[in-house]
Amino acid sequence: MSPYLAAEDLSMFGRDPWWLVVIKAVFCFAFLMVTVLISIVMERKVIAWMQLRVGPNRHGPWGMLQSLADGVKLMLKEDIIVKRADTVVYVLAPIVAAIPAFMAIAVIPFGPADNEISIFGHRTTMQLTDLPIAVLYILAVASIGIYGIVLAGWSSGSTYPLLGGLRSCAQMISYEIAMGAAFASVFLYSGSMSTSTIVAQQHDRWYILLLPVSFILYIVTMVGETNRAPFDMPESEGDLVGGFNTEYSSIKFAMFMLAEYVNMVTVSAVSTTLFLGGWRAPWPISTAWAGANHGWWPLLWFVAKVVLLLFVFVWLRGTLPRVRYDQLMKLGWKVLIPVSVTWLMLVATVRALRNEHYDFADIALYVGGGVLALLLISFVADMFREKARTAEQPAAEQAGFDPMAGGFPVPPLPGQELPPVPRRRPRRERELIVSGGTDTVSDGSSDGKEASDG
């Protein structure tokens, strides 16, 4: 069967008894919780190692129980509800943020669908369930989680949480478009939206090699989707105190942290499934060992890839500074979306040419010609744009920058300069003022003598 016309066989799903479904659901929940505990400790340890610090070393051996101690501490703290908050929405917001984070793991395959394992005598797949539109289900569930953050910022009755919620909403909308385009490239190449089928189509080559631009786009967008550094503007403790969760405490605050780390694990699992071969063993091992993708071994390869991507999250936080909010929006709307749409058109063109049985040389010729034509048009457009900008520059320099033009003081944008600060009085005039000269006349009086007599 051609890899470009994949047939979905989901008959092995939906046959498990109810108690086995419960066991698999509990396993998925436990997998996320344990991975979150490990991720928190790993983040603190790795960043401490990068910054030549010790890191947590008190709770448990080598500080491995630090995240568990933090969870117990947050649960025992006093739960405070802000007086001006909308109580119902204020309480439901952390739940709305946390529950969708757990739901996406239901369609992630931990092992091959045709290699069933035995649990209490019943043969079952290493996946809770699968859908013909499983990846769309992941996108839909991820979109619901943003409501928790927005409602948390609005219901707190405070300014900074509201700003954090609005920032998060704009950030999610900006980056989900590019994420959807990256997913669409995978759909076109695999011919399916089922996660198990997408992994099965990577039997000879992972999609990170076939679709490298889609992988890079998804890596950037998944960092923006999870509000992690350097895209952590919704929290941004430097200018928003703590963002949307400023007015939360105790277990409700812990649920927001839990949702963030569970989302990290979920997007890492999705990236592993779509681009890194899912549960498949890496190339040297898969070719040298025939049993590498059978039994419980696929679970090991899957977990190793997820942990590697979690390390990338920590690596980015420890090395990159937080970008400005205008830079974040510019990256999302002016860079990621055009690049993702252009790449999607390119992948669709190659897919159509392959279906028409064109050979690789013709495809490379057509695609290369199209790319060169786009670059040439872009170069000519940039020349005319630069010429127009040069012609407008003298007029802009004469006008200058007025920070009070709109009625409110605003900081200058890149390329703009504030007017020069007026010079201070000469030293001799300042000495005259201090010694009681004529400049000490108060407003409304004619001279210094009358002012002193009054």
Automatic annotation (TrEMBL):
GO biological process, one term: aerobic respiration
Listed EC numbers: 7.1.1.-
InterPro entries: NADH_UbQ_OxRdtase_su1/FPO, NADH_UbQ_OxRdtase_su1_CS
Signal sequence interval, chain numbering: none
Biased composition (Low complexity): 434-445
Record Pfam families: NADHdh
Main location, first listed in the record: membrane
Record localization: Cell membrane; Membrane
Domain of life: Bacteria
Catalyses which reaction(s): a quinone + NADH + 5 H(+)(in) = a quinol + NAD(+) + 4 H(+)(out)
Membrane topology per record: Multi-pass membrane protein
Keyword hit for NAD: yes
GO cellular component, one term: plasma membrane
Residues annotated as transmembrane: 18-42, 87-111, 131-154, 175-200, 206-224, 261-279, 299-319, 331-351, 363-381
Broad class of enzyme this protein falls into: translocase
GO molecular function, one term: oxidoreductase activity, acting on NAD(P)H, quinone or similar compound as acceptor
Region (Disordered): 395-454
Keywords: Cell membrane, Membrane, NAD, Quinone, Translocase, Transmembrane, Transmembrane helix, Ubiquinone
UniProt biased composition (Pro residues): 409-421
Protein function: NDH-1 shuttles electrons from NADH, via FMN and iron-sulfur (Fe-S) centers, to quinones in the respiratory chain. The immediate electron acceptor for the enzyme in this species is believed to be ubiquinone. Couples the redox reaction to proton translocation (for every two electrons transferred, four hydrogen ions are translocated across the cytoplasmic membrane), and thus conserves the redox energy in a proton gradient. This subunit may bind ubiquinone.
Subunit and interaction comment: NDH-1 is composed of 14 different subunits. Subunits NuoA, H, J, K, L, M, N constitute the membrane sector of the complex.
HAMAP family: NDH1_NuoH (MF_01350)
Entry protein name: NADH-quinone oxidoreductase subunit H
Protein source organism: Streptomyces fodineus
Phylogenetic classification of the source organism: Bacteria, Bacillati, Actinomycetota, Actinomycetes, Kitasatosporales
Gene of this entry: nuoH
